[in-house]
């Protein structure tokens, strides 16, 4: 299944971990009252009317009031063209000027600035339409607001024009359900119904909102973990929620986090594609019902996204993605195994799948910097930090175990990084190297890190997961779609076609329009899975099926060691 890392959300998940705490400053942050009023008139997808009241912002003429991206990582937002967004203050209607900010790699933000100085409180109003999605919509990060089964689910950044000034604000968020059927519920990542929280503007944007005939399940022991859905899923929602809840309890306890809460939202895609995005204290995933996903299929995705809550390095996405994605992969599996949520064989299969992902990756011999440059362009590149980070952490753990005679492990370093994150002490790549250096020696720590960054193939040490699992080397064929999917106007087209690839041999040419992209999400995991794509050249469509694999590469995996105990401690 497709996973997308979302650095913005992951960063926030930690940045706002103290958001329930009372403000320390003598002066309370300015009030920001948000009212969300969903309405689904019969036979329509409906909309959410949004009213946002700023407490005396005292803006000068020309100062920005609110902002919203036009698109974020390819996902279109509500935009609010023309006069769809209005404002007023004590002096009456407040004229706004629309402008666009300097483009960022993830998208262009639109801002609304006031044309005259403001007087008193400012009230901003707009009607949020859900995004229209169809069978041909591209899968991507879950930033858009969508209608489903008489309700709505989506991220703030897809429909909420949020304060241009970062804040923090004393937010009072309310749901007005007067136009909705009885029993309708409104949920934000930070709570259900009315929620008061001191948060920066970014948290309003990078969190989830759901309203309508929501069903939910809470963790049995407390209500720190809640799962929500609008449509009954094709899998056992209760079994799924129980698994997720146990994982959350175990992992949050491991990191010493006994306060924060977490919300999981699930929604249905009208197109073939599964994916999840982690935002503040929450994540949402979408699935394609005809694919009949199982609890087993989805729990990996869920555990990965939840594991993002705690481990975090300071620094740009390109510099630290190996850590955020690597630890999410490493700890989602390890915590589930330790909690008894994965059997030993399931754990073995899962770590082998991660190793396969790395050894079959077309980016494994690129530097991390080169892979990061292609991150937004090529979906396959988005997976680079996962496998690379995972295997590097496996290596690091093996080195620490060997050096300490089994007394210390990667856990000690990752927990110390998390402690520093919570204490707002420096916790970047330099601190990582210093902490690993203390365990295995500074030169060794630096050399292993440089190898990972350089793109030299990572070799799994024999003692990784010993004595239960032994390392086996083999020849593998790297995943190779054969071309880069690029945008040309509103079309997706083939570029950078590899002349010696299976795609080229199947007849695909540079410049061909991609009508239905080959589904890499399954083929990525299995060397024998072919892909089928529909392309168009000179106005004629054609279908090709091919095995998306390149030349042989050296690879490693694990097997159960002979005579090893049936239970193993990792
Ligand atoms: Zn991730």
From TrEMBL:
Residues 1-25 form the signal peptide. Coiled coil: none annotated. InterPro entries: PDZ_sf (IPR036034), Peptidase_M4/M1_CTD_sf (IPR027268), Peptidase_M61_catalytic (IPR007963). Gene3D superfamilies: Neutral Protease Domain 2 (1.10.390.10). It comes from the Bacteria. Keywords: Signal. Pfam families: Peptidase_M61 (PF05299). Residues 316-372 form the Peptidase M61 catalytic domain. This is Peptidase M61 catalytic domain-containing protein. It comes from Dyella telluris.
């Amino acid at each position: 299944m497709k996973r997308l890392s979302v650095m913005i959300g992951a960063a926030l998940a930690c940045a706002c971990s103290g958001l329930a705490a009372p403000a320390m400053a003598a002066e309370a942050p300015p009030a920001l009252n948000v009212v969300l009023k969903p309405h689904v008139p019969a036979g329509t997808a409906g909309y959410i009317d949004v009213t946002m009241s700023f407490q005396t912002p005292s803006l000068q003429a020309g100062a920005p009031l609110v902002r919203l991206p036009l698109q974020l990582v390819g996902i279109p937002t509500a935009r609010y063209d023309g006069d769809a967004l209005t404002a007023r203050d004590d002096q009456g209607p407040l004229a706004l000027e629309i402008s666009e900010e300097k483009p960022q790699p993830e998208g262009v933000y639109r801002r609304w600035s006031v044309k005259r100085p403001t007087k008193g409180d400012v009230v901003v109003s707009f009607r949020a339409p859900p995004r229209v999605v169809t069978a041909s919509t591209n899968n991507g990060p879950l930033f858009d607001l969508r209608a489903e089964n008489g309700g709505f689910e989506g991220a703030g950044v897809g429909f909420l024009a949020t304060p241009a000034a970062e804040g923090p604000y004393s937010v009072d968020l309310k749901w007005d359900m007067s136009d909705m059927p009885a029993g309708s519920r409104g949920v934000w990542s930070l709570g259900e119904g009315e929620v008061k929280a001191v948060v920066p503007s970014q948290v309003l944007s990078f969190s989830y909102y759901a309203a309508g005939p929501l069903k939910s399940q809470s963790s049995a022991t407390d209500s720190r973990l809640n799962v929500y859905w609008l449509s009954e899923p094709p899998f056992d929602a209760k079994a799924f929620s129980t698994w997720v809840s146990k994982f959350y309890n175990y992992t949050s306890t491991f990191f010493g986090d006994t306060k924060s809460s977490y919300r999981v939202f699930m929604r249905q895609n009208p197109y073939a594609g599964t994916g999840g995005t982690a935002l503040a204290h929450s994540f949402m995933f979408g699935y394609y019902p005809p694919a009949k996903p199982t609890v087993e299929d989805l729990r990996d995705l869920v555990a990965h996204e939840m594991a993002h809550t705690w481990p975090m390095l300071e620094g740009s996405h390109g510099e630290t993605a190996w850590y955020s994605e690597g630890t999410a992969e490493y700890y989602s599996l390890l915590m589930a195994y330790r909690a008894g949520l994965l059997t030993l064989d399931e754990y073995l299969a899962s770590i082998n799948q991660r190793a396969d992902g790395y050894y079959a990756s077309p980016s494994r011999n690129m530097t991390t910097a080169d892979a990061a440059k292609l991150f937004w362009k090529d979906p396959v590149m988005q997976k680079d930090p996962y496998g690379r980070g995972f295997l590097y952490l496996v290596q690091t753990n093996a080195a620490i175990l060997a050096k300490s005679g089994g007394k210390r492990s990667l856990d000690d370093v990752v927990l110390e990084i998390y402690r520093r994150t919570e204490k707002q002490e420096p916790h970047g790549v330099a601190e990582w190297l210093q902490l690993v250096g203390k365990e295995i020696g500074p030169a060794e720590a630096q050399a292993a890190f440089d190898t990972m960054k350089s793109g030299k193939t990572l070799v799994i040490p024999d003692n990784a997961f010993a004595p239960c699992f032994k390392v086996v080397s083999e020849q593998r064929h790297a995943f190779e779609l054969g071309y880069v999917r690029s945008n040309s106007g509103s079309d997706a087209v083939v570029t950078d076609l590899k002349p010696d690839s299976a795609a080229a041999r199947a007849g695909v040419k540079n410049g061909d329009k991609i009508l239905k992209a080959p589904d890499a999400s399954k083929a990525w995991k299995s060397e024998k899975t072919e892909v089928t794509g529909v392309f168009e050249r000179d106005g004629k469509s054609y279908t090709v099926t091919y095995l998306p694999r390149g030349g042989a590469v050296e690879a490693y995996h694990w097997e159960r060691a002979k005579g090893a105990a049936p239970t193993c401690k990792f």
